[in-house]
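Please decode residue identities from the backbone states below.
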């Protein structure tokens, strides 16, 4: 990120600084249930406030309609938790732009922090509307993007406003991009990539990109059944994408051509359906019953995967091995997560999304080298695609 200015290059004192953060956190009954993303934004907020900046935070939360205020998606609970962590009151504007936002900003003193309401309450945000970007820019003297989790979106608060103000990257944004790109450009070897999730169609570009870089590529999750189908196995009632079988076959051939070790399950856990009291059994991939679905990798597959992970010098993981949210189908994901955590000598990167949820569920987060806050953004970066939120900061 040599051509992108850092907040270390900014003189924040007395300046109004609009900071795009990612406070899209889970909330239940008005209380934040996981403050990981809030804590990730703290170093940048504290730096700017500590330097005497007047910090104006902007974030989305959930998926509101875009037609105005919706109580269920208010930023207020996230702001309350942020206030507790920072140890200072964080004023919440009643609107995203307009008189209420300006009033809150004008009341800020040096070192104080305020937050605008959910930026997606205005439909113009997702359209990267120039007029809306101008309204946001009018609140500030400088702009900082520290929301890596939304860097793959060309929205007004992630891209549009950066063209209107002196712009900088926050600490989280810098660390995310630098960590992911350095690992992919020059990983310590052996480099093992672990990919799960439900659909090959969602991950095919990532599989393709990592196959050019990894020494071993591990496939789990429901998408493995499309690969198993490509190998000629019957997969019963398991989730498959028939239109992607040929592409999966091509990936198997590519791995062989490149000398990449491609690991697919040799056994799976099957059941008639997904429930906490499901009757399960582990079967060979050659013996999946026609009326049952595979919902996790089997114990032998988990052992093989864990052994490969334990021998790695670098590990990148994105996507669970099964329906880990449901007890009977969590074992495969747990075993992979534990193997990554136990490899203390390796660079271990968790690429956002459900993998982060799994690591947190199994209480292993503090044993990972790096946990990305952006599932979609990290995947697009791995694929080699430009991120609009990053590109907008270049030479600004």
């Amino acid at each position: 990120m040599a051509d992108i200015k850092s907040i270390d290059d900014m003189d924040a004192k007395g300046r109004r600084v609009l900071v795009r953060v990612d406070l899209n956190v889970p909330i239940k009954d008005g209380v934040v249930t996981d403050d990981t993303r809030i804590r990730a934004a703290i170093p940048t907020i504290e730096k700017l406030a500590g330097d005497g900046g007047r910090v104006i935070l902007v974030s989305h939360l959930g998926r509101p309609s875009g037609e105005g205020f919706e109580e269920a998606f208010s930023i207020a609970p996230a702001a309350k938790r942020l206030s507790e962590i920072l140890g200072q009151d964080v004023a919440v504007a009643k609107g995203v732009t307009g008189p209420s936002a300006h009033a809150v900003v004008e009341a800020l003193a040096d070192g104080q922090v305020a937050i605008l309401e959910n930026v997606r309450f205005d439909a113009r945000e997702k359209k990267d509307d120039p007029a809306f970007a101008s309204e946001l820019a009018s609140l500030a003297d400088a702009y900082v993007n520290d929301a890596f989790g939304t860097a793959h979106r060309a929205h007004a608060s992630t891209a549009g406003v950066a063209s209107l103000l002196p712009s900088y990257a926050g600490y989280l944004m810098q660390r995310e991009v630098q960590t992911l790109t350095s690992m992919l450009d020059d990983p310590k070897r052996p480099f093992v990539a672990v990919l799960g999730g439900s659909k090959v169609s969602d991950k095919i570009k990532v599989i393709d990109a990592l196959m050019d870089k990894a020494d071993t590529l591990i496939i789990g999750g429901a998408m493995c059944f499309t690969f198993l189908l490509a190998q000629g196995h019957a997969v019963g009632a398991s989730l498959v994408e028939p239109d992607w079988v040929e592409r999966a076959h091509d990936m198997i051939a590519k791995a062989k051509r490149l000398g990449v070790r491609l690991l697919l399950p040799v056994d799976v856990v099957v059941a008639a359906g997904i429930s906490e009291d499901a009757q399960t059994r582990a079967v060979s991939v050659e013996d999946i019953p026609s009326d049952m679905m595979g919902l996790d990798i089997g114990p032998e597959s988990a052992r093989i995967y864990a052994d490969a992970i334990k021998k790695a010098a670098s590990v990148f993981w994105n996507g669970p091995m099964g329906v880990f949210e449901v007890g009977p189908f969590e074992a495969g994901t747990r075993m992979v997560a534990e193997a990554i955590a136990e490899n203390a000598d390796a660079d271990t990167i968790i690429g956002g999304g459900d993998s982060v949820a799994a690591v947190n569920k199994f209480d292993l987060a503090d044993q990972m080298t790096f946990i990305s806050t952006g599932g979609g953004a990290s995947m697009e970066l791995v694929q080699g695609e430009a991120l609009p939120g990053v590109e907008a900061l270049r030479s600004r």
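Observation: The mean pLDDT is 95.
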